[in-house]
Design goal:
heterodimer, A: mainly alpha, MetI-like fold, about 75% helix, B: mainly alpha
Chain lengths: ~270, ~280
């Protein structure tokens, strides 16, 4: 009896439930309804290049805004002591555990034309503003839903930055700006890398946020995929082709950013 | 903290909680409109009398628990085996393990759908009727849960003091006995953390469930999705309030337990991590 065998059931499992489904995506992408080889789906997927561009653009905007808004939050959280630190972490995690659909639905009720925000604005004589079904609403939904994914890794990296190091820099004559650019920023780079990926990947592939907050004319690539599999336009072959392109795109972003380097992968994902 | 830091955090938290507060406030509103007209608890009563919601809650809990238990057993075994493997093979298995974590959820979802649709076709040719439902949901959930178990258990195995295992074997244990007498106690915290993570992800999952659910039993998330299409449904608000209370209660409880443990540590009451050695 050898302990290595303990992993055999799981290895079989990964083949059947991870490798085979991926193989099927590739198989469907390169075949037509009759099952014969065809490049048609990929050509058709190319027609959605503008949707790809739009998805990437909105995801990039949200990711950058998440970083800009979340970075100071993460830093302040990492400098807090004791009970305040723990309470704040709990306050950050709590919305994450509320169902994602409910939170997005809540923004629908806030942003609607006769929704809460417009009613409040109406009281002071502004509006009604057109908030829902805009790209802005989609970006806001992405930020709202994914900003914790930015803050959590940033905070855990910043926790490792000792106050002594910051004080040493100040003793040596560094001003607040220098302390930030020479100490805090370089030391928090791994956290930025992780945070950016953890926001960008779900944002670029979302279909719920665009559907609920973007209305019909702000479709992203996730919506197109969803339509091919569960929508009116049932065509798993085209859906697979688009999925394949999206998957390669995400992998490319990850390898460019060095996210896939072996070291620290475990810490990065938990 | 300076006043502007406090303000910044305050504004950020307000942004985080505003939508949730709106849901909660309107779950007590006695009309369906967007203005608060009066206090009522009737939506909660309606929610509990809604058979579909109760069925979805049941499905969600069963799928989460069953898939997490199976994933924990298989994942822990996998971690133990991987630890003993040569680097090349281990690397290959780990690369497959990372796929469900780093792939966009929608791709994981549609790839399962293709797998099950294909399986359905094949099984139909040999006369087996295979339908989307409990089985497809649970299989999909097991698959995306296992990586979290493995990633939680592997570091614990690496910290494991091998001489303890060797000592057990010297005293006449076979490897399996040694595992149950020594290893399992040493890696317990990782197994528990992985299991809890799996339950959380499974309860909260929408995308993968959406692509693998059957017509009959839906998970809560999939049902909420159908509800949100109807625009105004105060029962959703009632459900949000209940979920919020549940999550808050769990978090507070976990925090209290952690604090108690820390205090115990400070007082030196906590015996070393194995839960103490029996003399």
């Amino acid at each position: 009896m050898n302990l290595r065998q303990a992993a055999y059931p799981y290895m079989m499992w990964t083949v059947v439930f991870i490798a085979v489904p991926l193989g099927l995506i590739i198989y469907f992408a390169f075949t037509d309804m009759q099952g014969s080889l065809s490049m048609d789906n990929l050509v058709q997927a190319g027609r959605y290049s503008s949707v790809f561009v739009k998805s990437i653009w909105l995801a990039v905007v949200s990711t950058v805004l998440c970083l800009v808004i979340g970075y100071p939050v993460a830093y302040l959280m990492s400098r807090m002591k004791g009970i305040g630190n723990r309470t704040l972490l709990m306050l950050l995690m709590l919305p994450m555990w509320m169902n994602f659909l409910l939170r997005t639905y809540a923004w629908m009720t806030l942003l609607e034309n006769n929704g809460i925000i417009n009613n409040l604005l109406g009281m002071v004589g502004i509006g009604p503003l057109n908030l829902i079904n805009t790209q802005g609403a989609v970006v806001m939904g992405m930020i709202y839903n994914y900003i914790p994914f930015m803050i959590v890794p940033l905070r855990s990296v910043m926790l490792k930055i000792q106050n002594d190091v910051l004080e040493a820099a100040q003793d040596l004559g560094a001003g607040p700006r220098e302390v930030f650019t020479k100490i805090i920023l370089p030391l928090s780079k791994p956290g930025i890398k992780t945070g950016v990926m953890m926001v960008f990947v779900p944002a670029v592939s979302t279909f719920i946020i665009s559907q609920m907050l973007g209305g019909g004319h702000n479709q992203l690539i996730g919506d197109i995929i969803e339509m091919q599999f569960l929508g009116n336009a049932y065509n798993p072959h085209l859906g697979s082709a688009i999925s394949l392109v999206l998957m390669l795109l995400v992998l490319m972003c990850m390898s460019v950013s060095g996210f896939l380097d072996d070291e620290g992968m475990e810490e990065r994902l938990l | 903290m300076k006043w502007y830091s406090k303000t910044y955090i305050g504004v950020f938290l307000a942004f985080l909680y505003l939508p949730i507060m709106v849901l909660i406030v309107f779950s007590f509103n006695d009309t369906k409109g967007r203005t608060f007209t009066g206090f009522t608890t009737k939506w909660f009563v309606q929610l509990f009398h809604n058979a579909a919601v109760m069925d979805a809650l049941m499905t969600t809990l069963v799928v989460a628990l069953v898939s997490s238990v199976i994933a924990t057993v298989m994942g822990t075994a996998a971690a133990i085996g991987l630890e003993k493997m040569d680097a090349k093979l281990k690397g290959a298995v780990m690369n497959l393990t990372y796929i469900p974590i780093i792939n966009p959820e929608i791709i994981t979802g549609v790839s399962f759908m293709l797998l099950f649709v294909t399986a359905k076709k094949w099984l139909a040719t040999v006369g087996i009727n295979f339908q989307f439902g409990w089985a497809t949901l649970i299989l999909a959930h097991i698959t995306f849960n296992i990586p979290y178990i493995i990633l939680n258990v592997l570091p614990k195995l690496r910290q494991l003091d091998q001489s303890l295992v060797e000592a057990a074997m010297d005293l006449g244990c076979n490897p399996i006995q040694a595992f149950f007498k020594v290893t399992i106690h040493e890696i317990r915290s990782g197994v528990v953390a992985g299991f809890l993570m799996a339950v959380t992800f499974s309860l909260d999952d929408f995308v993968v469930s959406y692509f693998t659910t059957g017509a009959k039993h839906q998970t809560l998330s999939v049902m909420i999705y159908a509800m949100t299409k109807k625009r105004v449904s105060p029962e959703i608000n009632a459900l949000s309030t209940l979920i919020f209370i549940a999550v808050l209660a769990i978090l507070v409880l976990v925090n209290l337990l952690e604090r108690r443990n820390e205090k115990k540590l400070k007082q030196g009451m906590l015996k070393w991590k194995g839960g103490g050695v029996k003399e």
